[in-house]
Amino acid sequence: MRTTLVVRSLFFLLLLLSVSAAAYAQIGISVSFGPPAIPVYEQPICPGDGYLWTPGYWAWDGDEYYWVPGTWVLAPEPGFFWTPGYWGWGGAGFFFHEGYWGPHVGFYGGINYGFGYFGHGYEGGRWEGGHFFYNRAVSNVDARVVHNVYRSEYRDHNSNRVSYNGGRGGINERASSEEEAFSRERHIAPVAAQTQHAEAARGNRELRASVNQGRPSVAATPRPGAFNDRGVVAAREAGGRYEPPANREVNAARTASHPNELPALERPTAPNTGNPKQDQKYLQQQQKLYSSQARERQKLQQQQEKEHQNLARQNASEANRQQVEQRHQQQTQQQVQRHQQQQQQLQQKQQAAHPSGSRGRP
What we know:
Blueprint: H1 2-25, E1 30-31, E2 51-54, E3 57-60, E4 65-68, E5 70-74, E6 81-83, E7 86-89, E8 94-97, E9 100-102, E10 125-128, E11 131-135, E12 149-150, E13 164-165, H2 177-182, H3 192-202, H4 209-212, E14 220-221, H5 248-254, H6 276-314, H7 318-353
Parallel strand pairs: 5-14, 7-13, 11-12
Antiparallel strand pairs: 1-8, 2-5, 3-4, 6-9, 7-8, 10-11
Helix pairs in contact: 1-6, 6-7
């Protein structure tokens, strides 16, 4: 009995790890409209030696954008830098490219996140002899607490606060050959503190763009998840006017790249033709179609997640990642269209068999 419990526990642990890896590899949540501009805010003071700045960004929760505050995070390894994630136009929608840790700062869409991330590279500090040295011209560091400091003036020539690459009004920047090479180096996914920080932001209503209008009350924190810390910083102003489209749900469904981004399938409702036996027959047909479509969705989702994992293991280039995401979006939309046609055909078949009856939606 005890051996069985241990085996089951190990299996469950492996399952959790595989789900986490798949979640990290999801680089292409597709949204039909871009996120708000980067808000204007100050950087909290660095809490201690070894912390690196990870700038705030707009994330998507399946319904709307929400702000993930910038924060200081301990580097997972000496010599590793943070490459921020970014939103990029993929031809039919905006895709989010996950940030990562690595020996160099790769391409992050040319987005001006501030505090050293001015579009390309990082000016906030450098590694020397296993220690991180902070550039006080860019990073908010108390030299009485952190002694590894220097000063190198850097003028930010990019005043644009647009938060996405490509598309209408987006940043028109492409990865350099050097940045492409950096994208193929060994990477580390966002650490647990970052993941928990983002989840806490997702559950905070005040961070939703519809509530804060692009000016979050918690723009940055001194440490991950420290939303109530006295060092929390609010945005001084929004980076630009925020006007999301009215038909957000429809747009999101039309540009979904993966089945798990689609609205849930509607469960069949009981028809009402006046003939109980006929109603039961129609309901069984509808339930059969519902189960079949649910299995097809799950199968396509698993197939796409497997491809995401392969991309992550291969450290695929941005160009390859975008090609895969575009293919995933095409596959998902084709499946949606096929399922809609199947539902319409079943409805027409039932109407032809019983034209005078009334019934619920299949």
